[in-house]
Here is the input.
Amino acid sequence: MRVRIGHERHAAISDLLDRALNKGVVLWGEATISLAGVDLIYVGLKVLVSSVETAQQMRSTRASDPALLDVRGS
Amino acid sequence: MTMLYVYALVDTPSLDGTPLKGHDGASVFAVRCGECAAATSYLSRHTIAPRPRSVWLHERVLDALMRRHAVLPLRFATIVPDVDMLRNRLRPMYHALAGDLQRLRGKVEFALRITNIHAECPHTGDAERKSDAAQALTPGTRYLRARAERWRERIASEDAAGRIERALRQHLDPAAENAVWGFATTRSATLIASYLVERNEVPAFVAAVADVRGRHPALDVSCTGPWAPYSFVTARSPEAWS
Here is the structure.
């Protein structure tokens, strides 16, 4: 069952992006992704984390949508 | 080079039910790790762009998995070179992951956004800013006054958000297991909340949201879900904390 109460499709996309890009289980530290300048970033034992392009797209997606903010604390 | 895209961790060593299709139409399969498994599919690329279509596909796989298993969602675009590397990364996190799976079994997440909060808790800071007298001030004084006004507006927004949060939680919290609230003022003051809800309590929670909307018609309350419990995962790799 997918519940959508009083929202537009934009809200569902924003909520999904907020979660899928910012939350969930993280296997690798993200700080390393910000070390741009190479096409691919490897951490620790040569583990591919993400491309710089992907990291930058994530950041620009978040920057263009005020709803895509980290929510911390309660 | 073929990579592994990892969608989620599940609480059983294998995946039950109808086979699922992941990115690029590849089959989703389980990589066993102790008593749990990672739901993965092969990916013929090193990266995947966070376009809405790809993120929705990630979500659809999670949604199907959630119907059959307890699920811990991995962050979008978690890609590993091979099974051994995946197991090596999961091994030190195993106890934390197993604890999260146990705690989150049978629970889903709902997202709430509450905007237009000043309609319910107005503040009066605009009058001073717009006064004719302010226009006669020196640029420096005008700047400092505007800055002070923005600061007052921020405080007023936080006060309003706090009052609204407390009012809404009275109605929503009893129908939920846990909640995380946040406040953003990037463009407009917005309250954002994530609620962890037992699957069999979903109708009660949805009814509580509808009740809140009825009690606070001036607020714009949106609610989406159920999502995988992204906001309530606590297990992280050591590097993720750095």
